[in-house]
Amino acid sequence: MSGTAQIGVTGLAVMGRNLARNLARNGFTVAVHNRTSAKTEALVKEFGDEGAFVPATTAQEFVAALERPRRLVIMVKAGEPTDAVIQEFAPLLEPGDIIIDGGNAHFADTRRREKELRERGIHFVGAGISGGEEGALNGPSIMPGGSAESYEALRPLLEKIAAKAPDGTPCVTHVGPDGAGHFVKMVHNGIEYADMQLIAEAYHLLREVAGYSPAEIAETFRTWNRGRLDSYLIEITAEVLAHTDAATGKPFVDVVADQAEQKGTGRWTVQIALDLGVPVSGIAEAVFARSLSGHADLREVSRSLPGPAPRALDKAEAARFADQVEQALYASKIVSYTQGFHQIRAGGDAYDWGIDLGAVASLWRAGCIIRAVFLDRIRAAYDAEPGLASLLADQRFAQEIGTAQDDWRAVVAAAARQGVPTPGFSAALAYYDALRAPRLPAALTQGQRDYFGAHTYRRIDREGSFHTLWGEDRSEVGTD
Hints:
The protein has 19 helices and ten strands. By secondary structure, the chain is an alpha/beta fold.
């Protein structure tokens, strides 16, 4: 059993099991291990004909089964369980060996672990893996961070098991040092939250304002998925809306409790954006929308609050409105990606990661949850101008969002008039208008801050910081 496996996977829940199967299917000998050996035995018994597996019942057996440099993938829950596994296996490893964390770890934890293990001569790779259980089995988008040396040792395996973009490119690349991979995966999930919220708002508007049934909305989404909105999330939305509940005969969406859950990566995205000073209002509204949906008691006592009730449009008006919603959805989606890529750039600058934004867009073209046809254009925009400050500064995206804006504004206005909540659409439009405004009311905010807290302000006509003595004379003094 000594040194026969090219890579090992410990943690054989659904994601870990499917990743191990993916590796074995692609011709690699895979050592497999789980805290409870029953899962190891079940994997080999059920899927042993898919490739070469080396089962191990103890940590020592598992490590002994790996060829040097040892490549060990951890697929357990983030946080303390990951630390516990590292503490169990690290003493058994030697300098040059590699631990890969494929879970949804917080990038700050990854940075800490990478530093601690580097001091012992062990490489630590935080690899964001997107695509869910299907992606893990058939080809995920993989976002590894860590040393360039460790990536080179892993590259042949990762490129083989990763999803392939339409042009055949593997959806994996070295994102950057230490926590860069998990940071990018975090922002990916934040964009995913925003994307899902925008799609949900489009559904809600088509149902409440256009008066469409779930089945009719499913067909609308299928039509959209043949155009510029072509994406995995639009595709599966149509499937969900077309599904009929077997027990009741009702549309599936009508028998599901309207309380969305979350695992935390969206919250992390917003929290870190606040730390970096990056506005990700669309992602934040998506996170808050899920939170609000879960406050059932608060919603119950608020149902009698005054406000308009939606009134369905006639058939011709509804068709026109559906076209406007498509424009609003597309424009808002561009804003969500704009905010996400801004955060990745800011994180890369703050931690000196040197992240290639075009390469990130390329990673997301297949395998991951937010894969979409327009990621090719995002990649092209950043490849053409690596220092592009914003996707909205790209001429083509700017033209498209300019064309969409009248319909976008009409949809947000209609939602407000009819009392249909659209926090995602509204926040995206507010962000767009804030960027294009010649002056913002922040000047007044700064004046208020100076009045009550002597926080000072800067002027537009000369350099320096100033404070007004808010007494009767209201004289101004420089503070530099």
